[in-house]
Amino acid sequence: MSRRSSPGPTPARGKPSAGRHQSRRPAARPPVEPPTSGPIEITVESVGALGDGVAHWQEPYGPNHRLFVPQTLVGDRLMVRFAQQRGEGWLVEPVSLLAEGPGRADPACRHFGTCGGCTLQHMDAETYGAWKVEQLRHALSRAGVTNLPMAPLVRTPPHARRRAVLAAARRGRRLWLGFNERASHRLVDIEECTVLAPRLMALVAPLRALLLDLLPDEHTLDVALTLLDDGPDVLLVGLPQPDLNALEKLGAFAEAHDLARLTWSKRPGAPAEPIALRRTGVVRFGPVAVSPAAGSFLQASAEGEAALVAEALAGAKGAARVADLFAGSGTLTFPLSTLAPVHAVEGDGVAITALEAAARMAGGGHPVTVERRDLFKEPLSPAELSAYQAVVFDPPRAGAASQAAALAASTVPVVVAISCNPVSFARDAALLLEGGYVLERLVPVDQFLWSPHLEVAARFRRP
Fold this sequence. Notes:
The chain has 463 residues and is an alpha/beta fold. Helices cover 22% and strands 29% of the residues. The protein is built from ten helices and 23 strands. The strands form four sheets. An eight-stranded mixed beta sheet has the order 7-22-23-21-20-17-18-19, sandwiched between helices. A seven-stranded mixed beta sheet has the order 10-9-8-11-12-13-14, covered by helices on one side. The radius of gyration is 24 Å and the shape is flat. Residues 1-26 have low confidence and may be disordered.
């Protein structure tokens, strides 16, 4: 559920920024002088939550500095130079590698080290999997949650990512199209991607040529790519108002590359306007075909979605009535409706419109009722929750503290929590445990391959 950060406006080192839709930034703080200008020797002691190696350096008669070293592993010994302050520590740049720790692998992508998307390709499979699971354990232990019934990590294969947002920028006679560098507004003009589905990657070069022809110099936009069941869905965010000539070229592009849908919007959050609607644009959630709005949220991979759905179904099995909270467009709702009647609650108007339309057309399953409600401001109360024998909730990255607290005070027999953020999940899990639930099963799901992000599915039961 994570989203690409809003791009910034200033090119650097000859590379363009990723976008222009941004509020004015506060004035930068004056730089802090590093403790020393020369290189120092360090040994990496751990790998932190963002995937950087972490080391400590004790300067003579001074404070203990925490150092962050990208693309390193535990046991790496190297010479580094101080680069910039990060919180109470420092980001440092490697100067030379003196000795290599265990667990290193050759990166799978030529853009590794520059592109900010896959920061962990230097880990071998065993080291990478253990690190991902440890991040979840660490987040839970900090929230006081121990004795974890941890299932093996569910791994998503390469080339399985079915949605992504790329940034495009025209600079003179060149069109840059790709992802941001890590912690930067500079763009990496991608030529390959080891996580993106091949059918979406195949659109990148043709889109680069199309946008070079359509965009004025210095213009930037976002390109949202989604692979639906009936073909690719392309949304151009920030496209200038297309004239007849541009519409003809865009329509021809959709035809030539067999897109399901091609739409555009003037700015982020603005309604998407159709250019070519060659097919409905559908994805199946269980037995039901749903037509999500252009650019709508979809689980990042079919494999990851299947793992989350399986955990929701296993938890709700035997329930006479189920509530699906933060239901989105029905990713879990319609699979759950094969077991029992489902009440789906969602606050986003675009998502719930798609869910309601699909619920009206669905046949053969149990009834699905739909409610639009902001669960952050108005969570279902313990009294309302008492109508259900199982509740599934899948909130955004911020988690669902208020709803988790209401569940903790309820009598619901089984709660299935789905999360894309181990830290907020740990907080919500602690609330459920304090309310008397027992953590019965915990499944880490690696949907965002080679990144620090991790999905979690957990089953809580009242004893």
